[in-house]
């Protein structure tokens, strides 16, 4: 069992193993201009699992090309908010959960 799964399993079973930071890879520096089109394209590539897709490639694209400084996932709200360094936001609903347009 991998480290992350082992720690989660320990916590769920009432264990008290310390939670260690998870280093999933390099940090990417966002550009100053937020481009929702680039972010949307990267999301589409992830959803379609285009050949060569990787999570690290996704992160690099949305930060270094799209200007995203981070993202927040709301599982209950079924959406992800991508935000830029200047406060821009792109809201992406989970597939099939977007509200109907009036």
Question: Mind explaining what this structure looks like?
Answer:
By secondary structure, this protein is an alpha+beta fold. The protein has one domain. It is 33% helix and 18% strand. The chain contains 3 helices and 3 strands. The chain has helices at 3-12, 36-48, 55-65; strands at 68-74, 79-84, 89-93. A 3-stranded antiparallel β-sheet has the order 1-2-3. Strand 2 and strand 3 (89-93) form a beta hairpin. Helix 2 (36-48) packs antiparallel against helix 3. The model is unreliable at 1-5 (pLDDT under 50).
Tell me the layout of helices and strands.
Blueprint: H1 3-12, H2 36-48, H3 55-65, E1 68-74, E2 79-84, E3 89-93
What share of the residues does DSSP label as strand, in percent? 15-25%
- Total of helices: 3
Distance between the termini: 48 Å
Order of helices and strands: HHHEEE
Helix content: 25-40%
How many E-type strands? 3
Q: How are strands sequenced across the largest beta sheet?
A: 1-2-3
Radius of gyration: 16 Å
Structural key phrases:
102 residues; alpha+beta; three-stranded antiparallel β-sheet; 3 helices; disordered N terminus
Short summary:
The protein is built from three helices and three strands, in the order αααβββ.
């Amino acid at each position: 069992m991998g480290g992350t799964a082992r720690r989660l399993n320990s916590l769920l079973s009432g264990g008290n193993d310390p939670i260690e930071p998870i280093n999933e890879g390099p940090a990417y520096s966002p550009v100053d201009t937020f481009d929702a089109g680039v972010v949307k394209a990267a999301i589409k590539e992830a959803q379609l699992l285009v050949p060569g897709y990787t999570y690290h490639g996704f992160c690099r694209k949305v930060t270094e090309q799209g200007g995203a400084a981070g993202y927040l996932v709301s599982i209950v709200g079924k959406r992800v908010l991508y935000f830029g360094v200047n406060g821009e936001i792109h809201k992406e609903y989970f597939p099939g959960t977007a509200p109907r347009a009036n």
